[in-house]
Amino acid sequence: MIVAGQQNNPGISMAGAVDLGALKHKVEAEPGQVGGAPAAGAYVVDVTEGSFQAIVQTSATYPVLLFLWVPTDDRLFPMAKALGDAVNGLEGRIQLARIDMASYPSIAQALQVQGAPALIALIGGQPMPILQGLPQGDEMRQITDEVIPKLMDVAAQAGVSGTAPYAGDPADQTESDGDSGSAGAEELPPAHAEAHRLAAEGDYGGAAKAYEHLLETDPNDSLAQRERSKALLLARSGQANVRQVRERGAAHRDDVEAQLAVADIDMIGGQIEDAFNRLLDFLAGHKADTEAVRQRLLEYFAIPEPTDGRLQRARRRLATLMY
Q1: What are the pLDDT digits (tens) for 40-78?
Q2: Cα(164)–Cα(136) distance, rounded to whole angstroms?
Q3: Could you tell me which residues belong to the region Disordered (predicted)?
Q4: Class of 20-167 in CATH
Q5: Which CATH class is domain 190-322?
Q6: Which of 71, 169, 195, 230 could be joined to 31 by an S-S link, Cβ 3.0–4.6 Å?
Q7: Which stretch of DSSP H or E encloses residue 145?
Q8: How far, in Å, CA of 127 to CA of 301, rounded?
C-alpha cells in the first residue's frame, strides 16, 4: 500500500523475524553484471550495516528513499531500474539507498520490514512507509511519477532540501563489481579497528577521540585525519535541525557560530564547495574570527580527495586571505 505524506517512526524495534520465504527466486548473474541487477552509481547507493547510520544522518540534509530488496532476485530488477532511473533523473534532489535484506537482515528488522521488496522514505531521520511487496498494475508508475515528487515536497517543507552527493558513473560501478582487489579500495589498518567500530556504531565522538590517539602516534596518517574530520563533523552536526540551522545562518550572517553550523550542514550533504565558499567569504569580511574559521576549514580539507579541484581552489584562497 502506498502512503505519501504520512510520517511514522517505528523506532529501532528488533521484534519479529524477517521472512526470507519471498527471497527464494534467485538468478546466477551477480549484481551489476549483464543480465543481473542494475548497478549502483550516480544518486543510487548500496547500504551496509556499517553505513546505514550515516544514511539516517544525511537524511537531515536531503531526502532518502530506502529500497529493501535482494539483488539476486530477478523479479525485482525492473523495479530497481525504474527507481534508479527516476531518482537519477532528479540529479541529487533525492537519494536511492538500496539495502540487501538477505545480507543485512538486522536493518530490515529495525525498520520492521518482513519481506522484499519494500520502500521507505527517510526525511530528517524519520521513516515513512511507502510500499510493501511487488508493485501491481500502475503502482510503479505512480511511485516514480507521483510519490517521489511528493516526498521531495514534504522534505522541502521540513527544510530538508540539500543535494545528495554524486556516487559516480553506474557504468564504472558495473565494471568494478565483484573485483574486491580494485585499486580504489582502502584496506582497514588493524590499528584503526576500534575507531572504525565506534564510527560504524554511530559513536562519532568516541571515534574522533580514537582517531586522535592514532594521529598522536602517526601525525601523517592521512586515513585517520580524514576519518577524524568526518567523525567530528557528524558528532557536531549530524543530528542538527537543518531548517533551524539555515534560518539562523540567514538571520545572523555576522555570527561565526551560525555560519560554521550551516557549513557543517553543507558538508554533511555533500555540498563541499558551498561549505568552503561560505567560510572563505565570511573570513574575507570578519578578520576577528580568523582562527575559528581557519581551523574548521583545515578540518574540512582532510575530507575530499587531495586531487579534488574544489579543495585545491579553497586552499589557494585561504592562503591568500591569511597571508
Answers
A1: 888 899 988 888 888 888 888 889 999 999 988 888 999
A2: 29
A3: 161-190
A4: alpha beta
A5: mainly alpha
A6: 71
A7: none
A8: 32
Concatenating the DSSP letter of every residue in 273-311 gives HHHHHHHHHHHHH-GGGHHHHHHHHHHHHTSS-TT-HHH
Measured distance CA(10)–CA(271) in Å, rounded:
30
Cα→Cα distances 302→23, 157, 204, 228, Å: 42, 33, 16, 9
Q: Per the structure block, which three cell numbers stand in for 6?
A: 504520512
Cell triple for residue 123? 526525511
| Of 55, 202, 61, residue with least CA distance to 124 | 61
Distance from CA of residue 246 to its chain's centroid?
Answer: 19
Side chain identity at residue 88, one-letter code: N
User: Exposed, middle or buried, 277 (CB in 10 Å: 0-12/13-18/19+)?
Assistant: middle
Q: Which long-range contacts (CB under 8 A, 24 or more apart) does 240-245 make?
A: 240/60, 240/264, 240/265, 241/60, 241/124, 241/159, 242/60, 242/61, 242/124, 242/159, 242/160, 242/162, 243/158, 243/159, 243/160, 244/159
Query: Of the given ranges (129-138, 160-169, 294-303), which has the lowest mean pLDDT?
Result: 160-169
Task: Measure the CA–CA gap between 242 and 268, rounded to whole angstroms.
Answer: 11
Query: What gap in Å lies between CA 217 and CA 105, rounded to an integer?
Result: 38
pTM across the whole model: 0.53
